[in-house]
């Protein structure tokens, strides 16, 4: 934000980007109001047994004629139907109906700094924020889908000190087919291996497929000022990151065969994803809707044949955790793209890399933001200097321009010609400050998305009263400083000749102070530092040029 024009151009670019993004997300058929989860939310927000929503068991090829399981015996919701799992990275609840993960809290990521012992809940089967992971088997004969009940000898599992792996087995059996669904949890990891071991004692051949799906309700827009994408994503070697929003899922069901792909549900800072264990196998990816309010994306494995008296095993992987780019990149090709930097990702990724390197040195994300801002000012020093020189020269000749403006106020053609003569005489390009600004805008927008999307800044402290760089400044100190520095910049720029325009410009510092008061403090910190550096550079250049101008034109 180097000049008043830069502020206006940047604001226009930012608003245009937001409008385009809003059009992309909102164009199409709106969800039915009656299906909004907020309309049916229970007042106390307690969990309800909605994990067994029926009617969304996927089909595949010949499996479309599969024998659908009979409606299982209705059971009253009770704690006995769940298995509680605790590791160093998870506090989970697994439903015996389908072996679905219906609750996942992340103890390493508290919901609020003032509540360090209250973990962020990523998965939940409440009516208010429904988001679960389901899975099962498909067969033309018998197989447990996510609607069938498993059994377990234990209701509590925990990863003990000294253990690196925790296994949670569930068992289902029918007509000689026994399936053991096992969750494999590893210390320090949010990636869970899920296996289905099929034992065939039926006397005949068994053939089937496994599937995993992510199901959630539409949470609606949480913030209209700072929007981040919430919805489904699918990846393929041809298109590593393709968004499928809830309207798209409702309008048309996806059916696509992909080798080395994955599917995910995104929200701010966190992601759930299903990743095939075999990158060389072709999986069928699909989307679905249930009851007008649940949206699913999933993947179906290739078929396995289990001869009578034999066993076979399906392997799947699910991820439920933070968008930590380094870890996501190790899990699947392109999974780190779920850290959505938008269309300027090719600029944002190097900026994040620089931030991370500086954080490793300083140990503080706030100082890393300041140093990145300094480096960007150095990078664009010459471009900024060219713009400042142009404005300084405009300011130097402004008294002469005001004079001819009064002289030719009734003759616009003569006025324009006289102004052009002055510009030509002084060798001034009135648009000289615009081009350098336009070049810098993509970098500033890219950095905006880095600071907004990177989970590393969530609850990251800076100094003094700034305890969380991802939250607004609680005392509005940084927004006020931003407004003051913006006002000083305006005083260094040539004043607009139009009195109305001058009044509008004078109101901008106040407007932007209020506007930035609701932005994360990390973003405002960047703007404040950038403004201070810009003021210093602009003041030095203006002072030098005005001094040279006085000596060169002593009589003017």
Task: Describe the secondary structure blueprint for this structure.
Blueprint: H1 4-26, E1 82-86, E2 91-95, E3 101-112, E4 115-125, E5 130-139, E6 156-158, E7 165-174, E8 177-186, E9 191-200, E10 206-217, E11 231-235, E12 242-244, H2 246-251, E13 255-259, E14 262-267, E15 270-276, E16 282-290, E17 294-300, E18 304-306, E19 311-322, H3 325-331, H4 345-362, H5 365-379, H6 381-407, H7 412-426, H8 434-453, H9 477-492, H10 499-516, H11 521-552
Parallel strand pairs: 1-6
Antiparallel strand pairs: 1-2, 2-3, 3-4, 4-5, 5-10, 7-8, 8-9, 9-19, 10-17, 10-18, 11-12, 11-14, 13-16, 14-15, 15-19, 16-17
Top keywords for this entry?
556 residues; alpha+beta; single chain; 11 helices
Q: Give me the count of strands.
A: 19
Radius of gyration: 30 Å
Number of helical regions: 11
Identify low-pLDDT runs. Answer: 17-53, 63-79, 550-556
Question: For the residues shown, what is the average pLDDT?
Answer: 80
Distance between the termini: 32 Å
Estimate what percentage of residues fall within beta strands: 25-35%
């Amino acid at each position: 934000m180097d000049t008043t024009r830069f502020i206006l151009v940047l604001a226009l670019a930012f608003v245009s980007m937001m409008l385009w993004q809003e059009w992309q997300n909102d164009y199409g058929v709106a969800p039915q109001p009656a299906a909004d989860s907020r309309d049916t939310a229970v007042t106390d927000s307690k969990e309800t047994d909605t994990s067994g929503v029926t009617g969304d068991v996927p089909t595949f090829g010949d499996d479309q004629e599969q024998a659908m399981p009979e409606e299982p015996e209705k059971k009253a919701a009770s704690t006995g139907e769940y298995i509680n799992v605790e590791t160093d990275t998870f506090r989970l609840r697994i439903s015996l109906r389908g072996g679905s993960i219906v609750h996942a809290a992340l103890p390493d990521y508290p919901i609020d700094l003032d509540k360090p012992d209250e973990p962020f809940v990523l998965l939940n089967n409440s009516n208010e924020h429904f988001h679960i992971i389901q899975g099962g088997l498909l067969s033309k004969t018998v197989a447990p889908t996510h609607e069938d009940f498993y059994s377990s000898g234990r209701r509590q599992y925990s990863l003990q000190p000294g253990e690196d792996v925790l296994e949670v087995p569930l068992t289902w059996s029918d007509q000689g087919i026994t399936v053991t669904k096992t969750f494999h949890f590893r210390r320090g990891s949010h990636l869970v291996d899920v296996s289905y071991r099929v034992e065939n004692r039926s006397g005949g051949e068994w053939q089937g497929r496994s599937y995993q799906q992510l199901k959630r309700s539409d949470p609606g827009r949480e913030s209209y000022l700072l929007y981040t994408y919430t919805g489904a994503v699918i990846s393929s070697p041809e298109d590593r990151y393709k968004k499928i929003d809830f309207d798209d899922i409702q309008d048309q069901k996806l059916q696509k065969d992909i080798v080395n792909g994955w599917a995910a549900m995104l929200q701010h800072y966190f992601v759930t994803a299903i990743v095939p264990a075999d990158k060389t196998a072709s999986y069928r990816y699909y989307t679905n809707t249930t009851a007008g309010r649940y949206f699913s994306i999933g993947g179906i494995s290739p078929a396995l044949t289990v001869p009578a008296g034999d066993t076979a095993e399906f392997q799947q992987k699910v991820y439920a955790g933070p968008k930590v780019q380094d870890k996501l990149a190790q899990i699947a090709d392109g999974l780190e793209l779920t850290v959505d930097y938008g269309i300027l990702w090719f600029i944002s990724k190097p900026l994040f890399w620089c931030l991370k390197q500086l954080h490793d040195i300083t140990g503080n994300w706030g100082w890393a933001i300041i140093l990145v801002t300094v480096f960007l000012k150095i990078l664009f020093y010459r471009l900024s200097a060219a713009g400042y020189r142009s404005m300084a020269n405009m300011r130097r000749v402004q008294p002469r321009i005001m004079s001819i403006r009064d002289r030719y106020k009734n003759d616009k053609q003569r006025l324009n010609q006289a102004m052009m003569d002055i510009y030509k005489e002084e060798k001034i390009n009135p648009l000289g400050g615009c081009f350098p600004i336009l070049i810098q805008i993509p970098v500033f927008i890219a950095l905006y998305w880095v600071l907004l999307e990177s989970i590393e800044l969530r609850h990251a402290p800076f100094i003094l009263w700034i305890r969380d760089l991802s939250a607004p400044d609680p005392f509005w100190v940084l927004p006020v400083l931003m407004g003051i520095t913006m006002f000083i910049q305006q005083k260094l720029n040539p004043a607009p000749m139009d009195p109305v325009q001058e009044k509008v410009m004078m109101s901008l510092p106040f407007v932007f102070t209020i506007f930035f008061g609701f932005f994360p403090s990390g973003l405002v910190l960047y703007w404040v530092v950038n403004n201070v550096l810009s003021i210093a550079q602009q003041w030095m250049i203006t002072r030098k040029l005005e001094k040279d101008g006085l000596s060169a034109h002593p009589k003017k």
